[in-house]
Amino acid sequence: MAPRPLSPTVWASPQLSPAALPALAAAGVRRLISNRPDGEDPGQPSAAAMAAASRDAGLAFAWIPVSGLPDGAQVAAVADLLADGAPTVMFCRSGMRSTAAWALAERSRGADANALRAAAAAAGHDLGRVPL
């Protein structure tokens, strides 16, 4: 599944493979944010492997692992990274935790909750249980 847009500069994706990163860079993506803890599933690439593949593809990489809903520190870290507007793909197992982290980060910066829910729904994620 290809990353789905949440905003003009942020996309959410299920787990990416290292082999997919050069195509993302060629498409204009400049940063990856992994919200996936290491060892969540057998065979999943580690954060270290994804960081190395990101560097090789010319992408910045941030690892902000989330289990359940993102906490305040995780939301703040995502908000800080996204503040520069660099084209960013966020990923986790399904894209849901990344979508929630994005929405909470945007809400912390004053974005409208209903608009965030609509953008998430358009990307295939239901934020009905996320306290925006």
Describe the structure in your own words.
The protein is α/β, with parallel strands linked by helices. It has one domain: Protein tyrosine phosphatase superfamily (Protein-Tyrosine Phosphatase, Chain A, Alpha-Beta Complex). It contains five helices and five strands, in the order ββαβαβαβαα. The protein has a five-stranded mixed sheet, with helices on both faces. Strand 1 and strand 2 form a beta hairpin. The two termini are 27 Å apart. The model has no long low-confidence stretch (mean pLDDT 96).
Short description:
This protein is an alpha/beta fold.
Which fold name fills CATH's third level, the topology?
Protein-Tyrosine Phosphatase, Chain A
* CATH class assignment: Alpha Beta
Query: Tally of extended strands?
Result: 5
- Specify Rg, calculated over alpha carbons: 14 Å
What is the makeup of the main sheet? 5 strands, mixed
In terms of structural class, how would the helical and strand content be classed?
alpha/beta
Look at the structure and give the mean pLDDT.
96
Q: How many domains in all?
A: 1
CATH architecture: Alpha-Beta Complex
Strand content is 5-15%
Distance between the termini: 27 Å
What is the ordering of alpha helices and beta strands?
A: EEHEHEHEHH
Quaternary structure classification:
single chain
Q: How do the strands line up in the largest sheet?
A: 1-2-5-3-4
DSSP helix fraction: 25-40%
**Spatial shape:** globular
Number of helices: 5
| CATH homologous superfamily grouping | Protein tyrosine phosphatase superfamily
